[in-house]
Design brief:
Order of helices and strands: HHHHHHHHHHH
Strand content: under 5%
Number of helices: 11
Low-confidence stretches: 102-120
Number of strands: 0
Oligomer: single chain
Distance between the termini: 38 Å
Shape: elongated
Largest sheet: none
Radius of gyration: 18 Å
Length: 192
């Protein structure tokens, strides 16, 4: 949806217009659909952000990430997460964007690539440390979210907190025993 492309996006946009005829949100929907970066950027300004509800803020931030406007996406996510602290989608979106989530990697297909995130502690950026805090919050808000646990597990591994990483991967295995990859990641965490 945030990419604004394809038949599904068009169908969802038509449905959204039927149930929500708000002019402001319709202009934003149009900007997402047409990839109008200037309009998206205008919505990322503080005065415009004040008018938007949590789901619309999440959609705007994702659209900005898709358009490679990482700093503007972070501005939106930071504002939104501070206003809606208990919103799982906004919290995990902020954490992922802090990790410089790339919309072109395979994670967009639901098969996330985590292995490249293992890094020696000296390579951990301040942004990674902040992201770990938001992933921790996301795990608290969405306790059954296995992907959030994986991201946090990799960050803990990179931060030299192997025991915490093992705990998160173990919980993931318990939730999805039939997924071989979960077992493999648990083994890697134990090894480190």
């Amino acid at each position: 949806r945030a990419a604004g492309q394809g038949e599904d996006a068009e169908s969802l946009t038509r449905i959204a217009r039927l149930v929500d005829d708000d002019d402001d949100r319709n202009r934003l929907r149009d900007a997402i659909h047409t990839a109008d970066r200037a309009t998206l950027s205008a919505y990322a300004q503080p005065e415009a952000l004040q008018r938007l509800p949590a789901p619309t803020l999440a959609l705007l931030a994702r659209a900005l990430v898709f358009r490679q406007a990482r700093e503007e996406a972070l501005t939106v996510y930071r504002f939104a997460q501070s206003k809606y602290r208990d919103d799982f989608i906004l919290t995990i979106g902020l954490a992922r964007t802090l990790l410089e989530f790339s919309p072109t990697d395979e994670s967009m297909n639901g098969d996330w690539i985590f292995d490249s995130r293992w890094a020696p502690p000296e390579d951990v950026s301040p942004s990674d440390v902040v992201a770990a805090r938001f992933f921790s919050a996301a795990v608290s808000l969405g306790p059954v979210c296995v992907p959030a646990r994986h991201e946090l597990g990799f960050l803990f591994g990179a931060l030299g907190e192997g025991e915490r990483a093992v705990e998160l991967f173990r919980e993931s295995v318990e939730r999805e025993r039939g997924v071989a990859r979960r077992w493999g990641l648990l083994g890697v965490a134990h090894h480190r």
